[in-house]
Write a structure and sequence with these properties.
The chain is an alpha/beta fold. It has 16 helices and 15 strands. It has helices spanning 24-27, 31-39, 63-72, 79-89, 96-104, 125-137, 159-173, 200-212, 221-232, 271-278, 323-329, 340-349, 383-396, 408-411, 418-441, 502-509, and strands spanning 6-11, 42-45, 110-116, 142-149, 179-187, 217-218, 242-246, 249-250, 259-262, 295-298, 334-339, 363-368, 401-406, 445-449, 480-485. Strands 3, 4, 5, 6, 7, 8, 9 and 10 form an eight-stranded mixed sheet that branches. The chain is globular, with a radius of gyration of 23 Å. 58% of the residues are buried. It binds 2-phosphoglyceric acid and manganese (II) ion (2 copies). This is 2,3-bisphosphoglycerate-independent phosphoglycerate mutase.
Length: 525
């Protein structure tokens, strides 16, 4: 091509926060990032709320919407917003899927499974309430709820707030003809919500409590949460699975003739459990022991290429004109690499929730296997291993556009462990120095950015001056850095710039005319 290669690094969860309070990014020793920021063209761009297609600016960014915006150069209404609209207009209940679900469980139960919080990253409790209410209106008699406890998109020990809220809601709905109650649950990082096949054992554990009703028994979700907390001290996302029983019997196993709705709208952590429900006898990821004959539907279609799940209530955004597609048209050779935890982020999310390549010949994707450990124990994760392979790819001369995601700021940030997160950010910085060197060796251009904040705010904001420090595990509302190294360009400084302006910028640096549907490049002309 004769063009200069462009390498784009997403430092997952590394946002910009002017306050030092709980700021693991500022606390980290990161000479390379500091030097790049001080000496290279740079700007701050938005990564949350309306800038990434979420319902409001109160919604923090996340990897799905962040990588979608980065990789498609446009702002699409995202799952959170689409489901809101679908429920508000009532269209969701006019779908064949909904009527099918209701009809299917005429003599059985309707189960709702999903993340119980108002985090709005994977799900929203209001969506669940709307579905339950309508189920009752449509004549469903028995509803069972299988709850995944959050503490990752919401405060780390907030589960009881949502349990109480939904139990009060169910109590109001319950009458002689309708009965809803919690049947099983567990922390989202302990059961059911694995992603990218990092740890199928999590899904197996979820299957056992939700479907088979096998697990430690409790009389209520509150009792389960309080007991586990007292015994183990773990935070919500890590609480083990539990089964609610009455008179020695699980109250809500999933049986033939039941209907099951996964009320999460985000795809990555919804796919594996969906495959377990949809899969026929050839399913071999774990032994399901008993596979009930149910109608299963997702709140959204989680992967349109792979048709997961078969039934769904809301169409996902139809993301068109992605950067990868455009670059393929120009014969640009692309390379994407990350470790398992974020592998789908730089491929599937980046390409507008597509799991297939646009052009087999032009695209190479590499996954480095993630550790299956609590990440505060190994905050460096696989950053060095990713870099080994990435640098070889850069120096091979076989690629024109290379992208990677270093998960550390985010994955370690989610643990709420400040000290480990500082090390996570430092690990990324060490690798950045190596990437920069490889870029120099091929006379390339390096872009350093992030998909949303996390490590930049590791403590909850204090409500009172003398309140104790409380760990914050969720993403943030902060802007993220955008830096260009190795190119003599001037960058715009504009409040309105966001992740969706990056695709056109990459095209500019590759000497390609940006697609007309994209938001403008960040480079001043
Ligand atoms: O871990 C996840 O599922 C989310 C937080 O809910 O994080 P990210 O968007 O960074 O993948
Ligand atoms: Mn992310
Ligand atoms: Mn995250």
């Amino acid at each position: 091509m004769g063009k200069r290669p462009v390498v784009l690094v997403v430092m997952d969860g590394v946002g910009i926060n002017n306050s030092e309070y709980g700021n693991a990014v500022n606390a980290a020793y990161k000479p390379t990032l500091d030097e790049l920021w001080a000496n290279c063209p740079n700007t701050e761009i938005s990564a949350h709320g309306l800038a990434v297609g979420l319902p409001s600016n109160e919604d923090m960014g996340n990897s799905e919407v962040g990588h979608n915006a980065l990789g498609c150069g446009q702002i699409y209404s995202q799952g959170a917003k689409l489901v809101n609209e679908n429920i508000e207009s009532g269209e969701i209940f006019e779908t064949e899927t909904w009527s099918g679900l209701v009809k299917n469980c005429a003599n059985g139960k309707m189960h709702f499974l999903g993340l119980l919080s108002d985090g709005n990253v994977h799900s929203h409790i209001n969506h669940l309430k709307a579905l339950m209410k309508r189920a009752k209106e449509d004549g469903v008699k028995e509803v069972r709820l299988h709850i995944l406890l959050d503490g990752r998109d919401v405060p780390e020990t907030s589960a009881l707030i949502y349990v109480e809220d939904i139990e009060n809601y169910m109590a109001e709905l319950n009458d002689d003809n309708f009965h809803a109650c919690i049947a099983s649950g567990g922390g989202r990082m302990s059961i059911t919500m694995d992603r990218y096949e990092a740890n199928w054992a999590m899904v197996e554990k979820g299957w056992h409590v939700h479907v088979l009703g096998e697990g430690r028994e409790f009389a209520s979700a509150t009792e389960a949460i309080e007991t586990y907390r007292a015994e183990t001290g773990v935070v919500d996302q890590d609480l083990p699975g539990f089964v609610i029983t009455k008179d020695g019997k699980a109250v809500g196993t999933i049986e033939d003739g039941d209907s099951v709705v996964l009320f999460n709208f985000r795809g990555d952590r919804a796919q594996e459990i969906s495959l377990a429900f949809d899969g026929d006898d050839s399913f071999d990821k774990f032994d399901r022991v008993r596979k009930p004959n149910v109608m299963y539907a997702g709140m959204l279609q989680y992967d349109a290429d792979l048709n997961i799940p078969h039934n769904f209530l809301t169409y996902p955004p139809k993301i068109k004109y992605t950067l990868t597609e455009e670059l393929c048209k120009h014969g640009i050779r692309e390379y994407a690499i990350s470790e398992t935890q974020k592998y789908g982020h730089v491929t599937y999310f980046w390409n507008g929730n597509r799991s297939e390549k646009f052009d087999e010949k032009l695209e190479d994707y590499v996954e480095i296997k993630s550790d299956v450990v609590p990440f505060e124990q190994r905050p460096w994760m696989k950053a060095a291993e990713i870099t080994d392979v990435l640098c070889a790819a850069i120096e091979s001369g076989n690629y024109d556009f290379l992208r990677t995601n270093y998960p550390n700021g985010d994955m370690v940030g989610h643990t709420g462990n400040f000290e480990a997160t500082v090390i996570g950010v430092e690990s990324v910085d060490l690798q950045l120095a190596r990437v920069k060197k490889a870029v120099d060796a091929v006379n390339g251009i390096l872009i350093v950015t992030a998909d949303h904040g996390n490590a930049d705010e590791m403590y909850e904001k204090k409500k009172k001056e003398d309140a104790p420090i409380k760990a914050k595990t969720s993403h943030t509302l902060n802007k993220v850095p955008f830096i260009v190294y190795g190119a003599d360009v001037e960058l715009k400084q504009d409040e309105n710039l966001g992740l969706s302006n990056v695709a056109a910028t990459v095209a500019d640096l590759l000497g390609i005319e940006p697609n007309e549907h994209w938001n403008p490049s960040i480079i001043k002309k």
